[in-house]
Design goal:
19 helices; globular
Length: about 425
């Protein structure tokens, strides 16, 4: 028997972070929306991390704008899944990890927990490498020293102790604004064939390099639809609640949809801008083998000027640090939900970062700095392999009226979700068998 808890478990280190936002149903709609906005931003910032950069830059360099449709469809798929995750949290008062803990036995819980942890570590590998590259580009330090410097981002998380979600959301909003502004300025410095950009929205894999295009397409998908973001969103959205009206939950769900779609639309545009930037700066100039973010930085300087190169480095650092914050939140939600273990956030950050530093150091020591590009891309492919394990309970729970009651997801939404589930598995199998 699936039973709902009497109270929701507070997300993200409850002893350290507080700040639920209560919204009066009698307030004007604009005021309610302004107070609700925030959870979507915490999720969206994970869609702009250095892993996205690596896959989008290589795709744009190698194929121009031809894989832009993958960015668009991945963004739309992310909106669908994130809204389902948020719906689960708001209706049941449980996040996806807590609901999965109740639904599955010990073996099932272990499998889902391990898969979620692998996705967080894979994502953190990308953050380590991205921030290390940013330190190298901005400060001139060797890449290995840059990797070592990323260990100190635990101090950032420690500095959040006692802060509420509104303060965390404000920090993330500032980082998102920095990333967006940097890319808009860089695009304004480059000539872009917008007709070809529009043609890139037509679904088709480039001819002649099917396997490599498939790897990049899966990397883009994995970087866009991060499995741990589903757990994160189902938890942090519970910091919002509309009160005082007979249809308060329906109002909450409406505001959530607007927050989620708006935030992820911004993330999709940023990812599209990265690919378009690479297509305009590199592919159009004949540089079709740019597979490394550092190479992209060096090549963009003569093409668009030193200011564009500086903006590139600043945006990369902002992307890595913002993903660090949300990765910590997601890690605590997953550990709490599946294992019922709560530790201070800085300790959780330290564990994740330590595990991510190992492959980053090993890859660079073994293969040299040229290993960064492949490590970034394959870290995102790992995310796409983990995604079905997070989607399975999410889709089943949203379609179960014993869990969701009258707020169970509509049949067409579930059909779209299951179709996406099949497509992702088929694409992963095609890659493994290619």
């Amino acid at each position: 028997m699936f039973s709902l808890p009497t109270t929701a478990t507070a997300p993200f280190c409850p002893a350290e972070v507080n700040g639920s936002v209560r919204i009066d149903a009698r307030q004007p709609f604009g005021q309610r929306l302004r107070r609700f906005v925030g959870p979507g931003l915490l999720v969206a910032v994970g869609y702009m991390d250095p892993g996205n950069w690596a896959t989008d830059i290589e795709a744009g360099s190698r194929f121009g704008y031809q894989l832009l449709w993958v960015v668009m469809l991945s963004g739309m798929a992310a909106m669908l899944l994130q809204m389902l995750a948020a719906r689960l949290g708001l209706v049941t008062g449980m996040d996806l990890a807590q609901a999965s803990h109740q639904r599955y036995g010990r073996f099932g819980r272990l499998c889902h927990w391990l898969s979620a942890e692998v996705s967080i570590i894979a994502c953190d590998v990308a953050e380590v490498l991205g921030c290390a590259l940013a330190f190298k580009l901005l400060l001139g330090v060797p890449l290995l020293w840059g990797v070592a410097l990323t260990a100190f981002d635990t101090l950032i998380v420690l500095g959040l102790k006692g802060k509420g979600f509104r303060q965390l959301e404000a920090i993330v909003l500032g980082l998102i604004a920095t990333i967006t502004l940097c890319f808009l300025l860089q695009l304004s410095m480059l000539p872009t064939d917008w007709g070809q950009v529009a043609a890139g929205l037509r679904p088709a894999l480039p001819e002649g390099e099917g396997r490599h295009a498939l790897i990049l397409a899966l990397g883009i998908m994995g970087a866009t639809i991060m499995p741990h973001n589903l757990y994160l969103h189902s938890s942090v959205v519970q910091t919002r609640k509309v009160e005082g009206g007979p249809d308060a939950l329906r109002q909450t769900l409406l505001l959530c949809r607007i927050d989620t779609i708006g935030s992820l639309l911004l993330a999709m545009l940023v990812n599209g801008a990265i690919l378009v930037l690479a297509g305009s700066a590199f592919h159009a100039a004949g540089h079709t083998t740019v597979t490394d973010i550092a190479d992209a930085h060096e090549l963009i300087r003569p093409l668009a000027g030193s200011m564009a190169a500086l903006l590139f480095g600043v945006a990369l650092l902002a992307a890595g640090q913002s993903a660090t914050l949300t990765g910590t939140v997601a890690g605590q939600v997953i550990m709490d939900g599946f294992l019922h273990i709560r530790i201070p956030c800085y300790q959780r950050r330290l564990i994740t970062r330590s595990l991510a530093l190992l492959p980053a150091f090993a890859g660079i020591l073994w293969q040299g700095e040229q290993a960064v590009g492949p490590l970034l891309v394959w870290s995102q492919v790992v995310l796409s392999l983990q995604l079905p394990l997070a989607m399975w309970p999410l889709l089943r729970l949203n379609g179960d009226r014993a869990v969701m009651g009258s707020h169970a997801a509509p049949a067409w939404v579930l059909a779209a979700g299951w179709l996406l589930f099949v497509v992702i598995i088929a694409a992963n199998l095609a890659l493994l068998l290619a």
